[in-house]
Amino acid sequence: MQRMKVDFNYAMKAFVECGLDDTALEKYREKARMGLSRLLRLVDEDKAGFVNLPGQDTSAMKKFAKEMSGKFNDLILIGIGGSSLGMETLCGALLPYGHNARSFSQRGAFPRVWVADNVDPAKISAILNECEPEDTFICVITKSGSTVETAANFNVIYEWLDEGAKEPKKHICTITDPEKGTLREISEKEGFPVFPIPDNVGGRFSVLSPVGLLPAALLGIDIDKLLEGAASVTRDKYEKIITLSSIYMYFMENGKNINVLMPYSSRLSSFADWYCQLWGESLGKRTDTDGNIVMFGSTPVKAVGVIDQHSQVQLFKEGPEDKVVTFIEVEKHEKDKKIMAEYDDYGYLEGHSLGELCNIELLTTEAALKNTGKPSVKISVDSLDEYTLGSLFMLWQYVVPVIGLACDIDPFDQPGVEEGKNYAYGLLGKSGYEDMKQKFEEIFTKRDDFIV
Amino acid sequence: MQRMKVDFNYAMKAFVECGLDDTALEKYREKARMGLSRLLRLVDEDKAGFVNLPGQDTSAMKKFAKEMSGKFNDLILIGIGGSSLGMETLCGALLPYGHNARSFSQRGAFPRVWVADNVDPAKISAILNECEPEDTFICVITKSGSTVETAANFNVIYEWLDEGAKEPKKHICTITDPEKGTLREISEKEGFPVFPIPDNVGGRFSVLSPVGLLPAALLGIDIDKLLEGAASVTRDKYEKIITLSSIYMYFMENGKNINVLMPYSSRLSSFADWYCQLWGESLGKRTDTDGNIVMFGSTPVKAVGVIDQHSQVQLFKEGPEDKVVTFIEVEKHEKDKKIMAEYDDYGYLEGHSLGELCNIELLTTEAALKNTGKPSVKISVDSLDEYTLGSLFMLWQYVVPVIGLACDIDPFDQPGVEEGKNYAYGLLGKSGYEDMKQKFEEIFTKRDDFIV
Question: Where are the domains of chain A?
Answer without folding.
Answer: 4-42+232-406, 52-227, 420-445
